[in-house]
Amino acid sequence: MVNVESNTSNSNERCNTTITTTISEDSPWYSQFRNASNPWMARYVYGFIFLVANLLAWASRDELSSLSALLEMKGFRGCKVGKDCLGTEGVLRVSMGCFMFYMIMFWSTVGTSKLNDIRDKWHSGWWLIKIVLWLATTIFPLLLPSEFIQFYGQVSHFGAGVFLLIQLISIISFITWLNDRWVSEKYAERCQIHVVIFATIAYCVCLTGIILMYFWYAPQPTCLLNLFFITWTLLLLQIITSVSLHSKVNAGILSPGLMGLYVVYLCWSAMRSEPPGARCIVKSDSSTTTDWQSIISFVVAILAIVIATFSTGIDSKCFQSRKDDIPAEDDVPYGYGFFHLVFATGAMYFAMILIGWNSHHSMRKWTIDVGWTSTWVRIINEWLAVLIYLWMLLAPIIWKTRYADSS
């Protein structure tokens, strides 16, 4: 007997719930585990490859600009603006290689449903061949002309947007699942005090964050844009709370509190992405120098990208139209195609935040997701998150009302 700690899904639980599965020697799971082709272990390898790609993209951005010899390479001769575009193109080329690798894995594994499928073995094993494939896809974009890379950079805006949308739905699904679980009949009485405590803490943190943002990013009455961002965030927090507590919705107080934390975080990250030297940012004059805090923030941001991509990739069943089917013993534990699609769009996303969503924009070392484009992407992401959350609350009521009227 072999015990494997894994994340699995069922119709009554969150899309990812940690359980301990007991695997018999006659089970297909045992042969997968024994042959070092376990799908749960495979996802960590793919996550590590994605991390390496992020680090390569960062090194390309911050180090290639000092290697003028690269301008003589065939692929970089189209770099019309000199050294400043080398870092940006380096990021896009690494991103394109990563995107190609995961798209090949997507097309070769999409639709896999059973553990004994040959595509399951391809997803979970054959690592030597896949490492060679990854190296080939990483090298190939280096040989392409700059015009093609710039076109990929434009397409990456759309791919990165898809990634953000998938991530939003995944996070909101987790928040609603957590709230439904804690207020369910099984846990309602036992967790009532815990719900009140966590909700109170969440709202206190939200209000504290809003006050600090007023102090840090809107110290003067002339900072109209930041004042609008913060005030509108406060208004959105009130709206999601009012809708959640409405008698027809009755979603409780925990989910709007957790959602408020996410909304406040997005507002903070948006204003933090404003370019250095902005007069409405406290201590912005010192932001042109690199210190240990900048380095730590950068490393944490890179790790956050990898973790967010990894956790979203195994959330495939959150996006299924039907979740009431009981999984069979030989069903795959997560959607392989969706997993690789998330990583492919994630490759475009890390390219965008490393170049500030602008292929003609030069970024300072140890910075990430800085620029007015990045600011507006974050703000729109915040507003979209609120709309999706409100729709998830109101959609069941709307459809129920329409069904009652039609009958």
From TrEMBL:
Belongs to the TDE1 family. InterPro entries: TDE1/TMS. Keywords: Membrane, Transmembrane, Transmembrane helix. It is a multi-pass membrane protein. One of its GO terms (cellular component) is membrane. The chain crosses the membrane at residues 40-59, 90-107, 127-146, 158-178, 193-217, 224-245, 251-271, 292-314, 334-358, 379-399. Pfam families: Serinc (PF03348). It is found in: Membrane. Its main location: membrane. Signal peptide: none annotated. This is Serine incorporator. It comes from Lupinus luteus.
